[in-house]
Amino acid sequence: MPYEHKSQPLLPRHLYWKRLFSHGLIAFFLLAIALGVGVCGYHYLEDFPWIDALLNASMILGGMGPVGTLKTGAGKLFASGYAIFSGVIFIAVAGILIAPVAHRVMHRLHIESKKAGR
Fold first, then answer.
1. Does 4 fall in a domain?
2. pLDDT digit string (tens) for 40-98?
3. Domain coverage including residue 70
4. Do the domain assignments include residue 52?
5. Inside any domain, residue 5
6. CATH number of the CATH domain containing 60
7. Total domain count for the chain?
8. What is the three-state SS of the chain?
9. Residue 68 in contact with residue 56, Cβ under 8 Å?
10. What pTM, to 2 d.p., does this model score?
């Protein structure tokens, strides 16, 4: 997804909305994959029912913490790794969603400072 160079004009609004939408889709699929990893891990390693595995994975991915009690060593190791992984995913998704907005603001400020003769 290339961004316009500082010497290029500001992206038209309809293309900007398209860029925002595509970044939103990327963030959504990244979250869906991360949630799928968590659900499968809790289901297969801790033998949680699918709905409980979804609840646990959602809560950890959302930063709230686990709900169910972990019984196996493998499940505890998975939960530990998944919690760290979820933190990294949170930062990545935030960056993906903020990038087009931050780029547009900085690009606009650069254009305005150029017009002012700086």
1. no
2. 999 999 999 999 999 999 999 998 988 989 999 999 999 999 999 999 999 999 999 99
3. 13-115
4. yes
5. no
6. 1.10.287.70
7. 1
8. CCCCCCCCCCCCHHHHHHHHHHHHHHHHHHHHHHHHHHHHHHHHHHCCCHHHHHHHHHHHHCCCCCCCCCCCHHHHHHHHHHHHHHHHHHHHHHHHHHHHHHHHHHHHHHHHHHHCCC
9. yes
10. 0.83
